[in-house]
Design goal:
The complex is a heterodimer of chains A (272) and B (91). Chain A has 272 residues and is α/β, with parallel strands linked by helices. Helix content of chain A is 40%, strand content 15%. Chain A has an eight-stranded mixed β-sheet with strand order 3-4-2-5-1-6-7-8, sandwiched between helices. Chain B has helices at 2-9, 16-33, 37-52; strands spanning 55-57, 63-68, 73-78, 81-84. The chains are: A alpha/beta (272), B alpha+beta (91).
Chain lengths: 272, 91
């Protein structure tokens, strides 16, 4: 049974594309066949995050306009078996696609793939409507900031209005240090406000910028904490029960070391 | 321990996340009902004007705010009454 999941947020810059790329990689490494679809027509970036930008010949709009077959436009990621990218057109805009066409494309992809992940553009206009059109469910990406959570709340309402099931949440750019000093909203604070199920918490780390520089998603890196966060989210997406939350506490500082040494553990750990 | 130390240094400044949370809750309520804080103030003043024609209220303890429930936003108000101003209302 295959599943089309739209990754959305309302606000731009919270990490939708990074999340889509990493979940695509993690799901594929877990053995699933995955198509990641860039629905950000005119401002494509999923190709760059995945490091596949030099291999684009055809894109989603070419497929819709009958210039090529769907299979010709799909770029196979040689690093992960079963992972394919359907790039967006860069020289067109959101109006080049209709929701009906997106439904058609995603349902065709679902015939061949276990998971179809749609990277939604920022905003609530045509691009959003196209991206959610073919989706069976939605993942909301937010960061622990007032502006991102406000927009996430708005998008949750729009996902419900689109008659999709209750969306699930990924909290991105989480900084355990700031949370423990009271300068960042924690998991409970955010869940209290957004009131949707949590799929995972992804720590903020400079690795993400390096991986974007290189076009190699961190989910490929077995030693990366951020990669592990995405891999756990991917496992939860597949329905694996009881995937433990990742310990995001800064474990190498002086205090953490001292705490371990005296055997003192925080009453309320910071976990993702 | 780290928390204690942090708290010690941050004693005279409230954790900014609380501020974020409060602002966010306020924002979401006003987004949802599409009523600006200015409009809410104006509504409160008009309502209070009417109430004060009948009873004397404790202004300092009066609460008047929007609250977010599961599905809808409620107008929640608590207006302590000191005494009745007049009974000469009829006719």
């Amino acid at each position: 049974m295959s599943d089309c999941i739209v990754v959305t947020s309302g606000k731009g810059g919270v990490g939708k594309t990074t999340t889509t790329a990493n979940l695509g990689v993690a799901l594929a490494l877990g053995g699933a066949r995955v198509a990641v679809v860039d629905a950000d027509i005119g401002l494509r970036n999923l190709d760059v995050i995945l490091g596949l930008e030099n291999r684009i010949v055809y894109d989603l709009v070419h497929v819709l306009e009958g210039e090529c077959r769907l299979k010709q436009a799909l770029i196979r990621d040689k690093r992960a078996d079963g992972l394919f990218l359907l790039p967006a057109a860069q020289t067109r805009d959101k109006n080049a696609v209709t929701p009906a066409q997106m439904r058609e494309i995603t349902s065709k992809l679902k015939e061949d793939f276990d998971y179809v992940l749609v990277d939604c553009p920022a905003g609530i206009e045509q691009g959003f409507k196209n991206a959610v059109a073919g989706a069976d469910r939605a993942i909301i990406v937010t960061t622990p900031e007032v502006s991102a959570i406000r927009d996430a709340d708005r998008i949750i309402g729009m996902v419900e209005a689109a008659e999709l099931p209750e969306p699930q949440l990924i909290i991105n750019r989480f900084r355990a240090k700031m949370v423990s000093s009271g300068d960042m909203m924690n998991r409970e604070d955010i869940l209290e406000i957004l009131a949707i199920p949590l799929l995972g918490v992804v720590p903020d780390h400079e690795e993400i910028i390096i991986s974007a520089n290189r076009g190699i998603p961190v989910s490929f890196d077995e030693n990366s904490l951020v990669g592990e966060a995405f891999r756990r989210v991917a496992r939860r997406i597949t329905g694996e029960p009881d995937v433990p939350m990742l310990d995001l506490t800064n474990g190498n500082g002086v205090w953490a070391t001292l705490k371990r040494w005296v055997g003192w553990a925080p009453a309320q750990g910071v976990a993702g | 321990m780290k928390e204690l130390i942090n708290r010690f240094f941050a004693r005279d400044r409230a954790a900014s996340k609380e501020e974020a949370k409060q602002r966010l809750k306020f924002l979401l309520i006003h987004d949802q009902v599409d009523l600006t804080p200015v409009q809410l103030d104006a509504m409160r003043e008009e309502i209070m004007e009417v109430i004060k024609r009948y009873v004397e209220v404790d202004d300092a303890k009066t609460e008047f705010r929007l609250e977010r429930g599961d599905k809808e936003v409620a107008l929640v108000s608590s207006i302590p009454v000191r005494r009745v101003v007049t009974r000469a209302v009829s006719a």
